[in-house]
Amino acid sequence: MTNHEFYMDLAIKNAQAMKGQTDPNPLVGSVIVTENRIVGVGAHLKTGEPHAEIHAIRMAGENARGGTIYVTLEPCSHHGRTGPCAVAIVEAGITKVIIATLDPNPVVSGNGVKILEEAGIEVIVGVLEESSKKMNEVFNKFIVKKTPFVTLKAGITLDGKIATHSSNSKWITSEEARHDVHQLRNEHMAILVGVNTVIADNPELTTRIANGRNPVRIILDSTLKIPLDRKVITDKLADTWIFTSENFDIEKKSLLESMSISVFPTSGSKQVNPKEVMRILGEKGISSLLIEGGGTINAAFLENKLIDKAIIYIAPKLIGGQQAPTFLEGSGIDKMADAVDLLDADIIKIGKDFKFVGYPSYT
Ligand code: AOF
Ligand code: ZN
Protein backbone atom coordinates (compact mmCIF):
# COMPACT_ATOMS: atom_id res chain seq x y z
CA MET A 1 0.00 0.00 0.00
CA THR A 2 1.39 3.40 -0.97
CA ASN A 3 1.22 6.44 1.33
CA HIS A 4 -1.61 7.86 -0.73
CA GLU A 5 -3.52 4.61 -0.46
CA PHE A 6 -2.94 4.41 3.27
CA TYR A 7 -4.47 7.82 3.96
CA MET A 8 -7.26 7.35 1.42
CA ASP A 9 -8.11 4.03 3.06
CA LEU A 10 -8.43 5.84 6.37
CA ALA A 11 -10.70 8.43 4.74
CA ILE A 12 -12.85 5.63 3.26
CA LYS A 13 -13.11 3.90 6.65
CA ASN A 14 -14.28 7.16 8.25
CA ALA A 15 -16.84 7.65 5.51
CA GLN A 16 -18.08 4.07 5.75
CA ALA A 17 -18.73 4.39 9.47
CA MET A 18 -21.63 6.75 8.62
CA LYS A 19 -23.40 4.19 6.45
CA GLY A 20 -27.15 4.62 6.77
CA GLN A 21 -27.11 8.14 8.17
CA THR A 22 -26.07 10.46 5.32
CA ASP A 23 -28.62 9.72 2.62
CA PRO A 24 -29.62 11.07 0.22
CA ASN A 25 -26.12 12.55 0.46
CA PRO A 26 -23.08 10.34 -0.22
CA LEU A 27 -20.64 8.83 2.26
CA VAL A 28 -17.53 11.00 2.24
CA GLY A 29 -14.39 10.95 4.36
CA SER A 30 -11.36 13.20 4.48
CA VAL A 31 -7.89 13.27 6.06
CA ILE A 32 -5.41 16.15 6.10
CA VAL A 33 -1.70 15.37 6.33
CA THR A 34 0.95 18.02 6.90
CA GLU A 35 4.63 17.02 7.09
CA ASN A 36 3.77 13.33 7.56
CA ARG A 37 1.43 14.00 10.45
CA ILE A 38 -2.35 13.65 10.41
CA VAL A 39 -3.66 17.08 11.42
CA GLY A 40 -7.33 16.71 10.54
CA VAL A 41 -9.91 13.99 10.03
CA GLY A 42 -13.53 14.34 9.00
CA ALA A 43 -16.57 12.61 7.62
CA HIS A 44 -19.91 13.78 6.32
CA LEU A 45 -22.37 12.85 9.08
CA LYS A 46 -25.78 13.87 7.82
CA THR A 47 -27.46 15.69 4.94
CA GLY A 48 -27.59 19.39 5.76
CA GLU A 49 -24.53 19.25 8.01
CA PRO A 50 -20.95 20.23 7.02
CA HIS A 51 -19.15 18.16 4.42
CA ALA A 52 -16.22 15.88 5.29
CA GLU A 53 -13.54 18.35 4.20
CA ILE A 54 -14.98 21.12 6.37
CA HIS A 55 -14.78 18.99 9.52
CA ALA A 56 -11.17 18.04 8.70
CA ILE A 57 -10.19 21.64 7.91
CA ARG A 58 -11.75 22.90 11.17
CA MET A 59 -9.85 20.26 13.12
CA ALA A 60 -6.57 21.08 11.41
CA GLY A 61 -6.90 24.87 11.82
CA GLU A 62 -3.65 26.60 10.86
CA ASN A 63 -1.97 23.19 10.47
CA ALA A 64 -3.84 22.68 7.19
CA ARG A 65 -1.62 25.32 5.52
CA GLY A 66 0.83 23.65 3.13
CA GLY A 67 -0.76 20.25 3.74
CA THR A 68 -2.32 17.53 1.61
CA ILE A 69 -6.00 16.70 1.84
CA TYR A 70 -7.34 13.23 0.99
CA VAL A 71 -11.03 13.15 0.03
CA THR A 72 -13.02 10.10 -1.05
CA LEU A 73 -15.19 12.25 -3.37
CA GLU A 74 -14.36 15.28 -5.47
CA PRO A 75 -14.78 18.41 -3.29
CA CYS A 76 -17.98 20.21 -4.20
CA SER A 77 -18.11 23.40 -6.22
CA HIS A 78 -21.68 24.46 -5.56
CA HIS A 79 -23.69 26.26 -2.93
CA GLY A 80 -26.11 23.52 -1.84
CA ARG A 81 -27.28 23.13 1.72
CA THR A 82 -23.56 23.83 2.50
CA GLY A 83 -20.34 24.28 0.52
CA PRO A 84 -18.46 24.82 -1.69
CA CYS A 85 -15.66 22.67 -0.25
CA ALA A 86 -13.24 23.34 -3.11
CA VAL A 87 -13.19 27.03 -2.14
CA ALA A 88 -12.73 26.16 1.57
CA ILE A 89 -9.72 24.01 0.62
CA VAL A 90 -8.16 26.89 -1.32
CA GLU A 91 -8.78 29.29 1.56
CA ALA A 92 -7.24 26.88 4.08
CA GLY A 93 -3.94 27.08 2.19
CA ILE A 94 -3.84 23.38 1.32
CA THR A 95 -1.45 22.74 -1.56
CA LYS A 96 -2.28 19.20 -2.69
CA VAL A 97 -5.61 17.40 -3.09
CA ILE A 98 -5.87 13.63 -3.53
CA ILE A 99 -9.32 12.47 -4.66
CA ALA A 100 -10.59 8.90 -4.92
CA THR A 101 -13.31 9.60 -7.48
CA LEU A 102 -15.07 12.47 -9.27
CA ASP A 103 -18.52 13.48 -8.01
CA PRO A 104 -21.20 12.06 -10.38
CA ASN A 105 -23.52 14.89 -9.30
CA PRO A 106 -23.89 16.82 -12.59
CA VAL A 107 -23.70 20.19 -10.79
CA VAL A 108 -20.29 19.29 -9.35
CA SER A 109 -18.65 16.75 -11.66
CA GLY A 110 -15.27 18.11 -12.74
CA ASN A 111 -16.02 21.63 -11.47
CA GLY A 112 -14.53 20.97 -8.04
CA VAL A 113 -11.23 19.89 -9.62
CA LYS A 114 -11.35 22.96 -11.89
CA ILE A 115 -11.63 25.38 -8.95
CA LEU A 116 -8.67 23.68 -7.24
CA GLU A 117 -6.46 23.60 -10.32
CA GLU A 118 -7.24 27.21 -11.20
CA ALA A 119 -6.02 28.16 -7.72
CA GLY A 120 -2.69 26.43 -8.49
CA ILE A 121 -3.33 23.37 -6.33
CA GLU A 122 -1.96 20.01 -7.42
CA VAL A 123 -4.82 17.50 -7.86
CA ILE A 124 -4.60 13.73 -8.23
CA VAL A 125 -7.76 11.75 -9.01
CA GLY A 126 -8.19 7.96 -8.83
CA VAL A 127 -6.57 6.73 -5.60
CA LEU A 128 -8.69 3.73 -4.38
CA GLU A 129 -11.32 4.80 -6.90
CA GLU A 130 -13.16 1.46 -7.09
CA SER A 131 -13.63 1.21 -3.31
CA SER A 132 -14.98 4.73 -3.13
CA LYS A 133 -17.37 4.18 -6.04
CA LYS A 134 -18.70 0.98 -4.54
CA MET A 135 -19.24 2.63 -1.18
CA ASN A 136 -21.55 5.17 -2.86
CA GLU A 137 -23.39 2.88 -5.27
CA VAL A 138 -26.73 4.23 -4.00
CA PHE A 139 -25.81 7.90 -4.33
CA ASN A 140 -24.12 7.35 -7.71
CA LYS A 141 -27.36 6.07 -9.22
CA PHE A 142 -29.79 8.38 -7.45
CA ILE A 143 -28.00 11.64 -8.21
CA VAL A 144 -28.01 10.86 -11.94
CA LYS A 145 -31.22 8.87 -12.53
CA LYS A 146 -33.37 10.41 -9.75
CA THR A 147 -34.88 6.99 -8.97
CA PRO A 148 -33.88 4.79 -6.02
CA PHE A 149 -31.12 2.19 -6.05
CA VAL A 150 -33.06 -1.04 -5.64
CA THR A 151 -31.84 -4.03 -3.65
CA LEU A 152 -33.77 -7.27 -3.80
CA LYS A 153 -33.50 -9.26 -0.58
CA ALA A 154 -34.66 -12.83 -0.18
CA GLY A 155 -34.15 -15.59 2.36
CA ILE A 156 -34.39 -18.94 0.59
CA THR A 157 -33.72 -22.62 0.97
CA LEU A 158 -31.15 -24.29 -1.25
CA ASP A 159 -34.01 -25.26 -3.58
CA GLY A 160 -35.09 -21.62 -3.94
CA LYS A 161 -38.20 -21.78 -1.76
CA ILE A 162 -39.44 -19.02 0.54
CA ALA A 163 -42.09 -21.14 2.35
CA THR A 164 -43.50 -24.65 2.44
CA HIS A 165 -46.57 -25.57 0.36
CA SER A 166 -48.69 -24.68 3.41
CA SER A 167 -47.09 -21.21 3.64
CA ASN A 168 -44.96 -21.96 6.69
CA SER A 169 -41.81 -19.85 6.60
CA LYS A 170 -40.65 -19.35 10.19
CA TRP A 171 -37.75 -19.64 9.93
CA ILE A 172 -35.85 -20.34 6.78
CA THR A 173 -32.65 -18.54 7.68
CA SER A 174 -30.80 -18.42 10.99
CA GLU A 175 -30.93 -15.65 13.57
CA GLU A 176 -27.57 -14.31 12.42
CA ALA A 177 -28.84 -13.87 8.86
CA ARG A 178 -32.03 -12.24 10.12
CA HIS A 179 -29.97 -9.80 12.16
CA ASP A 180 -28.08 -8.92 8.98
CA VAL A 181 -31.43 -8.10 7.33
CA HIS A 182 -32.17 -5.58 10.08
CA GLN A 183 -28.82 -4.00 9.28
CA LEU A 184 -29.98 -3.76 5.65
CA ARG A 185 -33.26 -2.15 6.70
CA ASN A 186 -31.28 0.35 8.75
CA GLU A 187 -29.31 1.34 5.64
CA HIS A 188 -32.32 1.79 3.35
CA MET A 189 -34.70 4.73 3.09
CA ALA A 190 -37.66 2.55 2.12
CA ILE A 191 -38.73 -1.09 2.24
CA LEU A 192 -41.29 -2.62 -0.14
CA VAL A 193 -43.62 -5.63 0.16
CA GLY A 194 -46.90 -6.71 -1.43
CA VAL A 195 -50.26 -6.58 0.30
CA ASN A 196 -50.45 -10.38 0.42
CA THR A 197 -47.39 -10.44 2.69
CA VAL A 198 -49.09 -7.84 4.91
CA ILE A 199 -52.24 -9.97 5.05
CA ALA A 200 -50.44 -13.28 5.67
CA ASP A 201 -47.65 -12.23 8.07
CA ASN A 202 -48.79 -8.90 9.56
CA PRO A 203 -45.15 -7.71 9.53
CA GLU A 204 -43.91 -4.60 11.30
CA LEU A 205 -41.21 -3.91 8.69
CA THR A 206 -39.15 -1.98 11.22
CA THR A 207 -35.46 -2.13 12.12
CA ARG A 208 -34.87 -4.10 15.28
CA ILE A 209 -31.27 -3.12 16.15
CA ALA A 210 -29.97 -0.62 18.69
CA ASN A 211 -30.49 2.95 17.43
CA GLY A 212 -31.95 1.51 14.23
CA ARG A 213 -33.65 3.75 11.73
CA ASN A 214 -36.99 2.62 10.32
CA PRO A 215 -37.40 2.83 6.55
CA VAL A 216 -40.60 4.15 4.99
CA ARG A 217 -42.91 1.16 4.47
CA ILE A 218 -44.08 0.80 0.87
CA ILE A 219 -46.99 -1.55 0.23
CA LEU A 220 -48.15 -2.51 -3.27
CA ASP A 221 -51.91 -3.08 -3.18
CA SER A 222 -53.74 -2.89 -6.53
CA THR A 223 -57.26 -2.68 -5.06
CA LEU A 224 -56.61 -1.31 -1.55
CA LYS A 225 -57.71 -4.52 0.08
CA ILE A 226 -55.30 -4.03 3.01
CA PRO A 227 -57.06 -4.79 6.33
CA LEU A 228 -57.10 -1.74 8.61
CA ASP A 229 -55.91 -3.67 11.65
CA ARG A 230 -52.46 -4.49 10.23
CA LYS A 231 -49.41 -3.23 12.15
CA VAL A 232 -48.17 -1.16 9.19
CA ILE A 233 -51.44 0.78 9.40
CA THR A 234 -51.88 1.07 13.16
CA ASP A 235 -48.49 1.07 14.89
CA LYS A 236 -47.21 4.50 13.67
CA LEU A 237 -43.62 3.25 14.07
CA ALA A 238 -42.78 4.47 10.56
CA ASP A 239 -44.53 6.11 7.62
CA THR A 240 -46.56 3.77 5.40
CA TRP A 241 -47.15 4.60 1.73
CA ILE A 242 -49.51 2.44 -0.32
CA PHE A 243 -49.18 2.27 -4.10
CA THR A 244 -52.25 1.12 -5.97
CA SER A 245 -53.54 0.65 -9.53
CA GLU A 246 -56.23 2.52 -11.47
CA ASN A 247 -58.84 0.25 -9.92
CA PHE A 248 -58.63 1.23 -6.31
CA ASP A 249 -61.50 1.59 -3.88
CA ILE A 250 -62.06 5.37 -3.56
CA GLU A 251 -63.70 5.23 -0.15
CA LYS A 252 -60.89 3.04 1.22
CA LYS A 253 -58.37 5.59 -0.02
CA SER A 254 -60.05 8.35 2.01
CA LEU A 255 -60.26 6.08 5.01
CA LEU A 256 -56.55 5.23 4.83
CA GLU A 257 -55.64 8.87 4.38
CA SER A 258 -57.67 9.77 7.45
CA MET A 259 -55.37 7.34 9.30
CA SER A 260 -52.28 9.24 8.03
CA ILE A 261 -51.43 6.63 5.41
CA SER A 262 -50.38 8.04 2.01
CA VAL A 263 -51.98 6.46 -1.05
CA PHE A 264 -50.49 6.81 -4.53
CA PRO A 265 -52.55 5.65 -7.53
CA THR A 266 -50.48 4.46 -10.54
CA SER A 267 -51.52 3.49 -14.06
CA GLY A 268 -52.21 -0.17 -14.78
CA SER A 269 -55.62 -1.76 -14.54
CA LYS A 270 -54.70 -4.98 -12.74
CA GLN A 271 -51.31 -4.40 -11.20
CA VAL A 272 -49.41 -1.49 -9.69
CA ASN A 273 -46.99 -0.08 -12.27
CA PRO A 274 -43.48 -0.62 -10.81
CA LYS A 275 -41.86 2.01 -13.03
CA GLU A 276 -44.25 4.63 -11.69
CA VAL A 277 -43.52 3.51 -8.14
CA MET A 278 -39.84 4.17 -8.87
CA ARG A 279 -40.53 7.59 -10.35
CA ILE A 280 -42.72 8.69 -7.43
CA LEU A 281 -40.22 7.40 -4.84
CA GLY A 282 -37.48 9.34 -6.61
CA GLU A 283 -39.56 12.50 -6.53
CA LYS A 284 -40.07 11.98 -2.80
CA GLY A 285 -36.29 11.84 -2.27
CA ILE A 286 -36.09 8.09 -1.57
CA SER A 287 -32.60 7.12 -2.76
CA SER A 288 -32.56 3.47 -1.67
CA LEU A 289 -35.26 0.81 -1.73
CA LEU A 290 -35.12 -2.66 -0.22
CA ILE A 291 -37.56 -5.11 -1.78
CA GLU A 292 -38.62 -7.89 0.58
CA GLY A 293 -41.50 -9.04 -1.59
CA GLY A 294 -42.61 -12.48 -2.53
CA GLY A 295 -41.96 -14.11 -5.90
CA THR A 296 -44.54 -12.11 -7.86
CA ILE A 297 -43.31 -8.69 -6.79
CA ASN A 298 -39.68 -9.76 -7.19
CA ALA A 299 -40.41 -10.95 -10.73
CA ALA A 300 -42.31 -7.76 -11.64
CA PHE A 301 -39.34 -5.62 -10.63
CA LEU A 302 -36.79 -7.91 -12.27
CA GLU A 303 -38.77 -8.16 -15.52
CA ASN A 304 -38.88 -4.36 -15.63
CA LYS A 305 -35.07 -4.33 -15.13
CA LEU A 306 -35.46 -2.32 -11.93
CA ILE A 307 -33.32 -4.42 -9.57
CA ASP A 308 -29.80 -3.02 -9.13
CA LYS A 309 -28.50 -5.51 -6.57
CA ALA A 310 -29.58 -8.89 -5.24
CA ILE A 311 -28.84 -10.06 -1.70
CA ILE A 312 -29.95 -13.65 -1.23
CA TYR A 313 -29.56 -15.46 2.08
CA ILE A 314 -29.37 -19.16 1.29
CA ALA A 315 -30.16 -21.63 4.08
CA PRO A 316 -28.67 -25.08 3.50
CA LYS A 317 -32.11 -26.68 3.79
CA LEU A 318 -34.40 -28.43 1.33
CA ILE A 319 -38.18 -28.07 1.23
CA GLY A 320 -39.38 -29.44 -2.09
CA GLY A 321 -42.97 -29.41 -3.32
CA GLN A 322 -44.25 -27.93 -6.58
CA GLN A 323 -46.69 -25.71 -4.69
CA ALA A 324 -44.05 -24.33 -2.34
CA PRO A 325 -43.41 -20.72 -3.48
CA THR A 326 -40.00 -19.63 -4.77
CA PHE A 327 -38.48 -16.17 -4.53
CA LEU A 328 -38.95 -15.54 -8.25
CA GLU A 329 -42.27 -16.39 -9.88
CA GLY A 330 -43.80 -14.46 -12.82
CA SER A 331 -43.79 -16.09 -16.24
CA GLY A 332 -40.02 -16.63 -16.40
CA ILE A 333 -37.95 -16.86 -19.56
CA ASP A 334 -37.90 -19.21 -22.50
CA LYS A 335 -34.23 -19.64 -23.27
CA MET A 336 -31.15 -19.84 -21.07
CA ALA A 337 -29.56 -17.19 -23.26
CA ASP A 338 -32.07 -14.73 -21.76
CA ALA A 339 -31.23 -15.52 -18.12
CA VAL A 340 -30.29 -12.54 -15.98
CA ASP A 341 -26.62 -12.82 -15.04
CA LEU A 342 -25.59 -11.63 -11.60
CA LEU A 343 -22.22 -9.95 -11.94
CA ASP A 344 -19.51 -9.24 -9.34
CA ALA A 345 -20.98 -12.18 -7.47
CA ASP A 346 -19.76 -12.83 -3.94
CA ILE A 347 -20.74 -15.19 -1.17
CA ILE A 348 -19.95 -15.19 2.54
CA LYS A 349 -21.05 -17.38 5.42
CA ILE A 350 -23.38 -15.90 8.05
CA GLY A 351 -24.18 -18.28 10.90
CA LYS A 352 -25.33 -21.49 9.22
CA ASP A 353 -26.37 -19.66 6.05
CA PHE A 354 -24.72 -18.18 2.98
CA LYS A 355 -25.14 -14.54 1.95
CA PHE A 356 -24.97 -14.11 -1.80
CA VAL A 357 -24.53 -10.66 -3.34
CA GLY A 358 -24.65 -9.94 -7.06
CA TYR A 359 -25.57 -7.23 -9.54
CA PRO A 360 -28.10 -8.11 -12.28
CA SER A 361 -26.92 -7.37 -15.79
CA TYR A 362 -29.70 -6.65 -18.29
CA THR A 363 -29.44 -6.85 -22.04
C1 AOF B 1 -18.17 17.08 -0.68
N1 AOF B 1 -17.97 16.58 0.56
O1 AOF B 1 -18.67 15.49 2.36
C2 AOF B 1 -20.13 15.63 0.54
C3 AOF B 1 -20.30 16.10 -0.79
O2 AOF B 1 -26.73 19.77 -0.01
P1 AOF B 1 -25.27 19.74 0.26
O3 AOF B 1 -24.67 21.10 0.40
O4 AOF B 1 -24.90 18.85 1.42
O5 AOF B 1 -24.59 19.12 -1.04
C4 AOF B 1 -24.82 17.80 -1.38
C5 AOF B 1 -24.00 17.44 -2.59
O6 AOF B 1 -22.61 17.69 -2.32
C6 AOF B 1 -24.09 15.98 -2.94
O7 AOF B 1 -25.12 15.74 -3.88
C7 AOF B 1 -22.71 15.69 -3.52
O8 AOF B 1 -22.64 16.10 -4.85
C8 AOF B 1 -21.83 16.58 -2.67
N2 AOF B 1 -21.43 15.87 -1.44
N3 AOF B 1 -19.29 16.78 -1.36
O9 AOF B 1 -17.33 17.81 -1.18
C9 AOF B 1 -18.89 15.88 1.20
N4 AOF B 1 -21.11 14.98 1.18
ZN1 ZN C 1 -18.63 19.88 -0.16
Automatic annotation (TrEMBL):
Protein name, UniProt field: Riboflavin biosynthesis protein RibD
Name of the gene: ribD
Function: Converts 2,5-diamino-6-(ribosylamino)-4(3h)-pyrimidinone 5'-phosphate into 5-amino-6-(ribosylamino)-2,4(1h,3h)-pyrimidinedione 5'-phosphate.
Catalytic activity: 2,5-diamino-6-hydroxy-4-(5-phosphoribosylamino)-pyrimidine + H2O + H(+) = 5-amino-6-(5-phospho-D-ribosylamino)uracil + NH4(+); 5-amino-6-(5-phospho-D-ribitylamino)uracil + NADP(+) = 5-amino-6-(5-phospho-D-ribosylamino)uracil + NADPH + H(+)
Gene source species: Paenisporosarcina antarctica
Biological-process GO terms, alphabetical: riboflavin biosynthetic process
SUPFAM superfamilies: Cytidine deaminase-like, Dihydrofolate reductase-like
Active-site residues (renumbered): E53
Database matches in InterPro entries: APOBEC/CMP_deaminase_Zn-bd (IPR016192), CMP_dCMP_dom (IPR002125), Cytidine_deaminase-like (IPR016193), DHFR-like_dom_sf (IPR024072), Eubact_RibD (IPR004794), RibD_C (IPR011549), RibDG_C (IPR002734), Riboflavin_Biosynth_HTPR (IPR050765)
